Amino acid sequence: MELTNRVALITGGKRIGAVVAIEMAKQGADIGLCYNRSKTEADKTAAAIKELGRKVFMRQADLTKAADCEAFVNESAKTFGRIDVLVNMASIYVAKPFNELTVEEFDENVAVDMRSAFICSRAAVPHLRKAGGGAIINFSDWLSKSGRPRYPGFLPYYVAKTGVIGLTEALALELAPDKIRVNAIAPGPILAPPETSDEELANVEKSTPLGQWGGEKAISDAVLALLKMDFVTGETLRVDGGRHIR
Question: What CATH number has the domain spanning 7-239?
Answer without folding.
Answer: 3.40.50.720
